[in-house]
Amino acid sequence: MTDQASVFAYCEGVAPLRPRLEDWIKALLSDPERLHGLVEAHGAPLNIQCDTPFRRKITALNDCVAEYDLPFLPMFARKANKCLTYVNTAHEMGIGIDTASHVEVEQCLAQGMPGERIVCTAAVKDRALMVLCVTNGVTIILDNLDEVALLERVAQEIKTPVSVGLRMNGFSCEGQALYSRFGFPLREISSVAARLAQSTHIRLDGLHFHLNGYSAEDRIAAISQSLPVIAQVKPTDQRDFFLDIGGGIPMNYLDDPKQWVGWLGELDAALSGDRAPITQHNDPLGRKLGRDGTIDSYPVAQSLVQTDWMRTVLSARQDGKAIADQLRAAQVTLRCEPGRSLLDGCGITVARIAFCKTDSVGTPVVGVQMNRTQSRSGFAEFAIDPLMVPGPEPRGDAIEAYLAGTYCTESEWLTRRKMTFPQGARPGDLMVFPNTAGYLMHFLESRSHQFPLAKNVFVTPDPNALARVDAIDNT
């Protein structure tokens, strides 16, 4: 066994961003024999996951909203992670699923999730997807008039009642318009609702929005601006009408959030020439001097997160009344679509080091058997430190190096941040990217070069229990 402090000692950012780790991850990192055994058995890169934190986060979110005596249905954002284990756990715990494609809907139905607990928010919905949703009772979130027309035709042909919500845009916060390419302007919702009311088979069951970013203030403003629209379109006797506020519930990745401020300071110093670079070719990663916190990375050190964020939204007062009280008075069921925040602490991605070399200017490069799409979302950088679990080869001299991946391009870096390896890096060592279950391991994964996708195995907090391959790898 290796003690926990020594696990952090093998690799760290030159300007550290130490990850916050769940107990099951700490236990696995402290048992190198078990971790190497999982990689030997299932290949690398490998996504190792545990749904215990997922269960805990669902319970915490439900308990939080229950404090406000408000009807509530969280809808897990399936696009954040493809594993069927989370679908089954969501079903077991009585929450819903937010789906974004035909296959996601099919898979959820195949796992036994009832259609009334599935919502389809796909950005593009074709006829086949509409038919699938209508025939299985899945709620469809309509985004534009072309979708409305298509659904009208499908519903008329199938002659089956279909539940829909209308996606809204046109919100503002503190005088600033909140841009979105999705949805209908608020001023048009009443006319679209009136059109749907002419259909024999289409039933408007709610309204929906999804805002970019993670601002509680933006959500408070959007809910407040949605309430008058709800009053216009909701039948007075309809008690299960929903307002879905989408996702964007923030979380914190760092063990010490103050390290983020320190890291930004070191990056600014490097960009100003006051210290040696801490990124590949002194890459600013989207950072502009004088713009606090701006970097092309998920914000890893947020202070208002998860249930505290939700309480801030529901407790906010607009026109002298709390948001939660206004929703309750309007007889509205609150829905949201958390992905990353429910998956917080649920997964790591592990890959082998294949080589250590220098590039054409003498900078050390550590080659890792994975590509950057296997631990990346829509942002350019993975801004928490990976960890290293040593292999059998003897340790060496300390180096500062960059992590390169398997794609044959000069831009193939797993992170553009410089890492320090106090005891060197050797073939067979394992690089561990923590907290990747939410978007990072699946959202952009690619089979370019015909590399196989990483397998997904689930473990439990019990170190003696066998790992289980997720059913998604058998589909």
Automatic annotation (TrEMBL):
<keyword id="KW-0663">Pyridoxal phosphate</keyword>
<dbReference type="InterPro" id="IPR029066">
    <property type="entry name" value="PLP-binding_barrel"/>
</dbReference>
<dbReference type="Pfam" id="PF02784">
    <property type="entry name" value="Orn_Arg_deC_N"/>
</dbReference>
<dbReference type="InterPro" id="IPR009006">
    <property type="entry name" value="Ala_racemase/Decarboxylase_C"/>
</dbReference>
<protein>
    <submittedName>
        <fullName>Y4yA family PLP-dependent enzyme</fullName>
    </submittedName>
</protein>
<feature type="domain" description="Orn/DAP/Arg decarboxylase 2 N-terminal">
    <location>
        <begin position="62"/>
        <end position="256"/>
    </location>
</feature>
<dbReference type="InterPro" id="IPR022644">
    <property type="entry name" value="De-COase2_N"/>
</dbReference>
<dbReference type="InterPro" id="IPR042152">
    <property type="entry name" value="Y4yA-like"/>
</dbReference>
